[in-house]
Amino acid sequence: MQVAIDGPASAGKSTVAKITAKKLSFVYIDTGAMYRACTVIARDNKIDYGDEDAILKAIDKTGIEFKAVNGEQKVYAGNKDISLEIRTPEISANVSQVSALAGVRKKMVSLQRKMAGQTNVIMDGRDIGTTVLPNAEVKIFLVASAHSRAQRRLLDLKQRGIHSDKTVDEIEKDIANRDYKDSHRKISPLKKASDAIKIDTTNMTIDQVVDTILKKIKEKAKKL
After folding, report:
1. Residue 31 assigned as binding residue
2. DSSP letters along 17-66, please?
3. pLDDT on residue 23
4. Is 14 one of the annotated binding-site residues?
5. Which residues of the sequence carry a binding annotation for ATP (predicted)?
């Protein structure tokens, strides 16, 4: 079974997708982490974030890999664990530009589809239900107010031990800017698939969101 979870930045996609996948013993694939890894590779190689050819060559040379370490999914660029680096404000500010590059998207989508074809998966991102897995049995589209997402982003950074000088209001502006970029890019823009179930998580707990998604998946499974 393929489950697609889409939505804007900090709507809670990764958190609920991880928990749901664990409860169902599905494989979790964080596509956002893949694009963030591409952005880290570009930065580490001092490549302009708009230089598609150079970024693609660097990705091919370095490689991106998910590894399970002590029961936790880690992201590697080559032999380097970049799981924390991909969440830093600098990468968050530039990932939209890198992920909008046609060649980068083509390469990542191909890799994502290959992963999804091997087992039961829960995949989250911006264009999973519309582009990557258009035939997914269950499609979820998570939304939340920009302010609540900014609060979540700041809390997440603190929990990861990543320092940020930005206020909630500044992060909210960054998120609104990211929403605009993601929704208006020419290739695979962020949008709700026509058959996706929309869930507003603004006033919901993580457990409530997970329970709602699990219910939808189980309902679908009974019909298959």
Report:
1. no
2. HHHHHHHHTPEEEEHHHHHHHHHHHHHHTT--TT-HHHHHHHHHHH-EEE
3. 94
4. yes
5. 7-15
Write down the pLDDT at residue 31.
92
Tell me the three state secondary structure of residue 73: strand
pLDDT of 224 reads 78
How many whole angstroms separate alpha carbon 85 and alpha carbon 122? 23
- 46 labeled part of a ligand binding site: no
Residue 10 marked in a binding site: yes
Domain architecture of the chain: domains with CATH: 2-219 (3.40.50.300)
The residues facing 27 across adjacent strands are 121
The reply, when asked if residue 32 is annotated as ligand binding, is: no
Backbone angles phi, psi at 10, to 5 degrees: 60, 30
Q: State yes or no: 13 annotated in a binding site.
A: yes
Task: Write out the two tokens for 1.
Answer: 């079974």
Q: Rounded to an integer, what is the distance from CA 155 to the centroid of its chain?
A: 18
pLDDT < 70 stretches in the chain: none
User: For helices 52-62 and 102-116, what crossing angle results, to 10°?
Assistant: 30
Predicted TM-score of the model (pTM): 0.84
Residue 102 in marked binding region: no
Spatial neighbors of 115 by CB under 8 A, at least 6 apart, are: 27, 29, 121, 123
Distances (CA, A) of 70 to 73, 112, 187: 8, 23, 36
Task: Tell me if 11 is assigned to a ligand binding site.
Answer: yes
Q: Tell me, what's the pLDDT at 63?
A: 94
12 labeled part of a ligand binding site: yes
Q: Strand pairing partners for 197?
A: 140
Taking the C-alpha atoms of residue 215 and residue 196, their distance in angstroms, rounded to an integer, is: 14
